[in-house]
Amino acid sequence: MASPRRAQHAGPPDGGWGWMIVAGCFLVTICTRAVTRCISIFFVEFQAYFGQDYARTAWIHSIVDCATMLCAPLGSLISNHVSCQVGIMLGGLLASTGFILSSFATSLEHLYLSLGVLTGLGFALCYSPAIAMVGKYFNKRKALAYGIAMSGSGIGTFILAPVVQLLIEQFSWRGALLILGGFVLNLCVCGALMRPIALKEDCKTAPEFLEQDYVPEAQKRDLKQMSICSPLIKVWSHECLCYCSWEEYDFLLMPDFMVLAVSVLFMAYGCSPLFVYLVPYALSVGVSHHQAAFLMSILGVIDIIGNITFGWLTDRRCLKKYRHFCYLFAVGMDGLCCLFLPVLQNFPLLVPFSFTFGYFDGAYVTLIPVVTADVVGTSSLSSALGVMYFLHAIPYLVSPPVAGWLVDTTGSYTASFLLCGFSMIFSSTLLGFARLAKKIKRTHLRSLTSDAGTKQHIWTNGAIAYSVTAELDQKDVEFLAVDTSSYSNR
User: Fold this and answer.
1) 383 in helix, strand or coil?
2) SS3 467
3) What is the pLDDT of residues 357-375, one digit of tens each?
């Protein structure tokens, strides 16, 4: 099978087929993130059918989320070195198989493997490559494009939450899982939309790469030797795919990326249990099953508004350079919502919570790839997003069971929600202090530079350039000017 021909562009086209990429990513987020959220609706059914406690049942949702994020670098690898289309189609087949096998489950362990590992792996091959493709097609309207694409998670949750509850009532949880298995096959259609694009900044051939000053001499010799001896390297060079693998993850040592990564760890720990335990918590305070599912729907549809409005706002010229602060503000607001949740114990009070939490959840989810692109650049975005979502894996795996253990131990959801809230607030505070420290350091360096009183003047006389750095009085300037003119008249 011939590799797909890549369209050549000097920069992101900011439109055209890019809107079809946005539509494909929109459907991918519905089939991955929205469906993952709706797994929490099965929580009570699994707990009743298998007779297990909160902590053991919560592992199902944790493993799905963990596998999705843990295998995100694998999705980026397949997208970078094979094809984004192939990766997403393969992921759709694996996710569908996982749901279908889960409908025949006889134990929680069965669900851990089929619904957790297999479905999560399939979602991983789809999620980060689809998001990275949007970043390759957009620059000026990047935040808006991401807002529309990521709103699929909210729209999907709004539509699927009551539909899944209805499917469970009509066909039992087994039939609902079987139907969801057919639904996620639409990921294969989404994969077909992901037309590859080659940008000038990430399309260096081996000869062009060897001309770069930052490449060590030893690596240049190795690459030259490989280019002479290996026909495969020559083919990759011809197809602009030989952008040496050792340069793909150099962003890992960037201080800004390291701080963002640590912040994401705490943010991921705080956000995951809420989606698992919102429905069980609502049921525990006397809310009906349909009202509890409706809370998830509200959260989902307001999530859409957060996606699009924050995406549009942060694309405005006045807010474009403050995207980091918009991101940490949204994360902090979600943390505050979690702190107040234990005192909201009836449906009329839980509705405003779903509105507020859903809005700011949509806001920061939209800004994760945008902020990442601002830190590492478009050429490294696919690999960077793979790492970012990989960092979600451990918190997603650990936080719901820990929250479930706290519920089993204390008999209340209060400790679980407080831990989530403080974790997200710490994430926001950490990133805020890091940005503030960077700004203070930059201001200090500027003051040192201005106090140095050093000026650099460059004189050229055609063939020779002189660089002089010092404080010169007017006589020195006149002397050099005369000397230069006399030399040029010879």
Assistant:
1) helix
2) strand
3) 988 988 888 888 888 888 8
